[in-house]
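Field log, afternoon session.

UNIT: design team B
ACTIVITY: writing a sequence onto a fixed backbone
BACKBONE:
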C-alpha cells in the first residue's frame, strides 16, 4: 500500500507495489496516518517530505473499481465515489498545513486525484521517459469536485490556457509538456534520476533550516481559497525573530 522511511532529514513516502495506486479509503487513511507521524516528528529538526511511487503509476486517481465493488442496495457506486472525494479533502489539507517543504517525485502516470496528489506538494519533479499527467473526469463524464478546481487554480492557474487544456480538453501531459506549461518544476530522464533529483532538492531545502510553523503558515496564506475549500483555516500566530 505505502511506506515511510526517514533518510537523515528527509522523509520518503512511497506508494508501494506494481498496481495503479488507486486512492481508496484504506490508502487515503494510511497516507494520512503517515503524514500525521511526520507532523509529530517534524518539529524536532528541519526536514522535508518526498512522495513517490513504485511501478508504472504514481496514482491513477480514485478507486472506481472499489466504488462499484462496494456498492450495495443502499449505497451506490456514486455515493462511494463521493465518500472518497470527502476523505481526500482532509489529505489535501494535511499537505497544505504540513510544517515542512514537500516534493512529489512523479515516476509514473498521475491521473485525476493522483494528479491532484502530486501538485498539492510544493514542488513536482517528473520523469520524461514515461508517464503522463491527466485529468480524466471530462472523458469519463464526471464533474470536478469544487476543491479540485481550487487546487488547479492555485497550482497551475497562472495561464488560463493551461487550465483550459487540462480541464476542458483533458490533455495528457508528458514530462516535457508539463514543464513547458509550468505544471511541474523539474523533468529528468528516468525514474531513478527523478528520485535522485528530488532528494537533492530536499537536501537543499532542509539546509535552509526554516521554521516549520512559519513555513506552513506562509504556504496556507498563499492559497486562502483552497484552504477554505478543504476546511483549513490558518489561525496559528508565530512570533517573529525580530
Amino acid at each position: 500500500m505505502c511506506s515511510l522511511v526517514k533518510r537523515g532529514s528527509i522523509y520518503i513516502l512511497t506508494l508501494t507495489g506494481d498496481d495503479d495506486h488507486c486512492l481508496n479509503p484504506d490508502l487515503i487513511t494510511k497516507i494520512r496516518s503517515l503524514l500525521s507521524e511526520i507532523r509529530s516528528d517534524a518539529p524536532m529538526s528541519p526536514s522535508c517530505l518526498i512522495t513517490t511511487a513504485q511501478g508504472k503509476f504514481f496514482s491513477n486517481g480514485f478507486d472506481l473499481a472499489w466504488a462499484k465493488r462496494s456498492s450495495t442496495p443502499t449505497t451506490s457506486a456514486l455515493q462511494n465515489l463521493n465518500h472518497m472525494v470527502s476523505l481526500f479533502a482532509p489529505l489535501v489539507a494535511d499537505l497544505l498545513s504540513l510544517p515542512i517543504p514537500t516534493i512529489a517525485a512523479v515516476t509514473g502516470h498521475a491521473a485525476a486525484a493522483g494528479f491532484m496528489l502530486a501538485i498539492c506538494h510544493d514542488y513536482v519533479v517528473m520523469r520524461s521517459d514515461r508517464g503522463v499527467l491527466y485529468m480524466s473526469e471530462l472523458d469519463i463524464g464526471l464533474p470536478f469536485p469544487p476543491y479540485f478546481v481550487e487546487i488547479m487554480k492555485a497550482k497551475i492557474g497562472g495561464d488560463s490556457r493551461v487550465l483550459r487544456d487540462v480541464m476542458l480538453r483533458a490533455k495528457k501531459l508528458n514530462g516535457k509538456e508539463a514543464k513547458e506549461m509550468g505544471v511541474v518544476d523539474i523533468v529528468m530522464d528516468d525514474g531513478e534520476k527523478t528520485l535522485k533529483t528530488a532528494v537533492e532538492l530536499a537536501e537543499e531545502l532542509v539546509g535552509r533550516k526554516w521554521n516549520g510553523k512559519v513555513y506552513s503558515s506562509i504556504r496556507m496564506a498563499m492559497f486562502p481559497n483552497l484552504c477554505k475549500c478543504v476546511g483549513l483555516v490558518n489561525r496559528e500566530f508565530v512570533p517573529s525573530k525580530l
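LOG NOTE: The chain has one domain: 2-229.
NEXT ACTIVITY: expression trials, pending approval
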